[in-house]
User: Fold this.
Amino acid sequence: MPPSDFLPADTVMKLYRDHHGWLSIWLRKKLGNSFDAADLAHDTFVRVMSGRRKEGMGAEPRALLTHIAKGLVVDHWRRRALEEAYLAVVAQLPAPEVPSPEVRALILETLHAIDATLRTLPVKTREIFLMSQFDGMAYADIADCQRVSLATVKRHMQKALTACLIAYQVHAA
Amino acid sequence: MSAAIDPVILEEAAGWLVRFQSETLSASDRAAFDRWRGRSAAHGAAWQRVEDMVRGFGQVPPAIGRDTLRRLDRPGRRQAIRALGGLLVLGPAAWAGWRTLPWREWAADVRTATGEQRHLELADGTRLVLNTASAVDILYTSEQRLLWLRAGEILLTTGRDPAPAHRPFIVRTSQGTIRALGTRFMVRDERDSIRVAVFDGAVEIQPQDPGVAAVVLPAGQQTVFNAHQVQPLAAADAASTSWEQGMLAVRNWRLADLVDELARYRPGVLRCDPAVAGLRVSGAFPLSDTDGSLRLLEKTLPVRISRVTPFWVTVAPRPSVTN
Assistant:
């Protein structure tokens, strides 16, 4: 994209000077510690700079900054919850089956993307997707188990897989 | 990197993936798929994305992915995450209930996905190995140690229950129960019947029909039973637990039986063409790499592995050179 789509550098500098202070304090209150708050404050400004929103910044940048920061806080907690769930699961595994730290990062990233996608779908669709993808169940067995027709299972699967493909697009772009 | 693809095309791509995962496509369906994929660059890119995504999913060990996502799905957690106004209150309160349970009394569902194996050591020292696509409920109480085989195949080496309990060890199946008498044995659910093989000690089989007498199966023997009868005992094949080492060792099997067995370890459809079903085969086949096992077949038998997609594979006769 052409550079003109970005916010001009001096605008960003001013924005940062005017708003970094209160944003950090606001984030610290939400997150309970200043390390994560500093990270997310930084991420918020990165989003603003790469967001091609020069027209929308206008008179009240606080609203936009708060909006972006809120999204990041939600994402932060979801990642935290996912990591907690993951740790609880691998704690039950014998040592040789616990993935290495590198693999773990990869697994968490994929699961985070799947979780974010599945969250937008109905519970039934999510469950059918998990049965197929992670329980390795055949569609016919899922139909039996859920007491629905094979056609219904296929419809749920197409919906879930489409959502994943669209999310994958955003993720990879 | 990737340009945006029309969501309508992505939906069609998902539809094809669903078909590959759920049915065996005819030659004309395959031709239709090829036409669809070739319709435009975007169609080709959409299918490439399907393959990339499936590969990405494949990097997550199924049991870990499933258990982690299901744990996140618990309603309490989701609400807590949604209640973002304040700070999250997770942790001690949620776990207190677990800790107050007596340490021995616990119930769990353990499952493996297709192609997965899992080793577990239970509270009494019993070692439990789940083979591919298997499910077991573990129900230990003060009265008994009960494993409920819901599907698939397990290998058990029972531990000694510490005094003074000496609780009986029982495997429950769809066709009846198996009581272990200090032992190493295998139980496999074959849907209409249960196969049991004993390698150490002995087990007692009680079919569900109470009119049928219990049968003791000693070490070195195997049998098949259903709710109403126990078949005559036969010598146990020590190679039948080779899956625990990740290999399938066979001697003079029908190719169709071998293909059926390999199919248990891979998602999707793996079929054997009737024209080669009766070929005889011996050897050891890696279970963690069934594609490798198939290549091995191709090298040693007059067969060809035909792939429509990774989800749909047929073992077919190799076309003869002369017509």
